[in-house]
Amino acid sequence: MPIGPRPLSRRNVITRFVLLAILIGASIWMLCGPSRTPETDSTTWSGATMGTRWTVKVVGPHRGSDDLQLEIQRALDEVELAMSTWLSESELSRFNAAPANTPFEVSTPTLEVVQVAQAVSEQSGGAFDATIEPLIEAWGFNTAAVGTWTRPAPDVVARAKARVDYRKLEVDPEARTLVKTAEGSKVDLSAVAKGYAVDRVAAALEARGIARYMVEVGGEVRVRGPNEHDGPWRIGLERPSSDDPTPHAVVPVTDGAVATSGTYRNFHASAGEHLSHLVDPREGAPVRHATVSVTVLHSACAHADAWATALLVLGSTEGLALAEKLGIRALFVDHAEAGLARRATSTFGPFEVVD
Asked: Which residues on adjacent β-strands are paired with residue 223?
């Protein structure tokens, strides 16, 4: 999901991997400024970032509401300016425009996100790949004219696929440089960046001594400590349906991050075909299995974000086996004749089915 401002006609593209509906007891629908709830001693802020919205809720005393809101916004803006594929002046856009085989120095945030992406790519056998952008472009999932889509010619897809391979992206952590070794290669960090932004905001809160909070950016969530009712935060998982945003399940979380990826929000429909925006970098084509969403619980939201995408590409059969092997807490949702079929790893923990 490219991050950054864009036309409303690209709204489905904006939300490529944003699939969580957040339920935290009292409503957290977006506000312009801090909202104080004296009876529960909690405060909520919200704002705009990366073409979506953010919400932060803090339970208990804290210092400086206005100052804290500015700090949150600044942390989010820094991630967007570094990693947006929509802002031509962003660090990532400048790297993508640079020639191949040329070291390009990047900031610490960009380096850290690339390292997460490369690690997940390696562990998932290439199901996750930050160099996926040429294939996304070939299949027409980052253009405004989605309604006029036609299937790309095989040679167009083949040329794009030749530019996609995480192993052709070289990372030098000490020099803080990236090198793309394939001409025409482009990096898209959208499947990690929002989760990383959540982690950055959480770190800013904890640096102020805040130990009870909920941070949400475009559906990616991280919480710490009990909520305002002294219980776990209740995170609603959006129903995998393009016209029904209600939750199909609720996951109680006290400490950690939650991220969900799905195939049902952005797709092409033409001549009886329904093609998800989720492109398998190994095949060079949209996924066609029955898995429609994957939710991952992790200590860090950047990792939850990336793994939700990787496991969704793999699907519930291959993905569940890998998640069990690696100890990843994941919930897979498939479309089945009887409705939704849910399969969770043994470590996922309890969740409440709503339907």
From this structure: 214, 256
Half-sphere exposure of 337 (CA within 13 A, CB side): 0
Instruction: Classify 314 as helix, strand or coil.
Output: helix
When comparing pLDDT for 4 and 15, which is higher? 4
**Alpha-carbon gap, residue 258 to 234, rounded angstroms:** 11
Does residue 339 come out as left (phi exceeding 0), alpha (psi in the -120 to 50 range) or beta?
A: left
Q: Identify the burial level of 225 via C-beta atoms within 10 angstroms of its C-beta, where 0-12 means exposed, 13-18 middle and 19 or more buried.
A: middle
pTM above 0.90, yes or no: no
| pLDDT cut 70: percent of the chain above it | 81
Quote the DSSP letter at residue 171: E
Query: What token pair was written down for 183?
Result: 């001409």
Across 36-40, 180-184, 229-233, 247-251, least confident range: 36-40
Query: Which whole number is the average pLDDT over 275-291?
Result: 87
Say which residues have a Cβ less than 8 Å from residue 332's Cβ, sequence separation at least 6: 291, 293, 294, 311, 315, 316, 319, 320, 342, 343, 344
Which has the closest alpha carbon to 218: 30, 74, 10?
30
Place of tokens 């016209």: 243
Instruction: Name which of 46, 59, 114 is nearest 224 in CA terms.
Output: 59
Q: Of 246-255, 261-270, 304-313, 330-339, give the range with the top mean pLDDT.
A: 304-313
Q: Which range of residues forms the domain containing residue 273?
A: 1-355
CATH number at residue 292: 3.10.520.10
Average pLDDT estimate for 336-354: 91
Q: Which has the closest alpha carbon to 243: 29, 25, 23, 12?
A: 12
Helix axes 108-123, 65-83, angle to 10 degrees: 60
Structural element, H or E, at residue 329:
strand 329-336
Angle, nearest 10°, between helix axes 190-207 and 65-83?
A: 150
SS3 string, 41-70, reads CEEEEEEEECCEEEEEEEECCCCCHHHHHH
Contact 306, 128 (CB under 8 A): yes
Total structural domains in the chain? 1
